[in-house]
Amino acid sequence: MGAQHEQLSELEVWIDQDLCTGDGICAQYAPDVFELDIDGLAYVKPPAPAGEEADLLTEPGAAAPVPLPLLNDVVDSARECPGECIHVRRASDGVEVHGPDAAA
Ligand code: SF4
């Protein structure tokens, strides 16, 4: 009970692995959302129940809901991502709100 991840934002995040440089900046900013897989590229993780580890979504371009408490970290990751390949979009209509395709 009381897991911070139970509170979701209305946003989801996905990574364009074709552009990922594997530097791991996103995994430093938001380790509960981003993780490098054994291929050296970053993938997203869905929120996990308290005390459990989420499975990495290793399908290229897979999207995961963004927990509200981690939204700032995810947005910072998208901003700092050297590959410009972290996309944050509204789950309801798919419009990108942070990332390389977001309206300025
Ligand atoms: S910050 Fe961007 S380029 Fe770096 S590992 Fe994460 S997704 Fe890949």
Structure description:
InterPro entries: 4Fe4S_Fe-S-bd, ET_Ferredoxin. There is one protein chain. The protein is built from 2 helices and 6 strands, in the order E-H-E-E-E-H-E-E. The chain has helices at 25-29, 71-80; strands at 8-15, 34-36, 42-44, 63-67, 86-90, 96-98. The strands form 2 sheets. Strands 4-1-5-6 form a 4-stranded antiparallel beta sheet. The protein is globular. Bound molecules: iron/sulfur cluster. The site of iron/sulfur cluster (SF4) has 16 residues, from helix 1. Residues 15, 20-26, 34, 42, 77, 81-83, 85-86 line the site of iron/sulfur cluster.
CATH architecture term: 2-Layer Sandwich
Low-confidence stretches: 1-5
Assembly category? single chain
* N-to-C SSE string, H for helix and E for strand: EHEEEHEE
C-alpha Rg (nearest Å): 13 Å
Quote the CATH topology. Alpha-Beta Plaits
How many helices? The count is 2
Structural class: alpha+beta
Shape: globular
**Could you say how many structural domains there are in total?**
1
Which small molecules are bound?
A: iron/sulfur cluster
**Roughly what fraction of the amino acids lie in strands?**
25-35%
> Distance between the terminal alpha carbons, to the nearest Å?
39 Å
Largest sheet: 4 strands, antiparallel
CATH class: Alpha Beta
User: Helix coverage percent of residues?
Assistant: 10-25%
What integer is the average pLDDT? 93
Order of strands in the sheet with most strands? 4-1-5-6
Number of strands: 6
Protein name: Ferredoxin
InterPro entries: 4Fe4S_Fe-S-bd, ET_Ferredoxin
Organism: Streptomyces taklimakanensis
Pfam families: Fer4_15
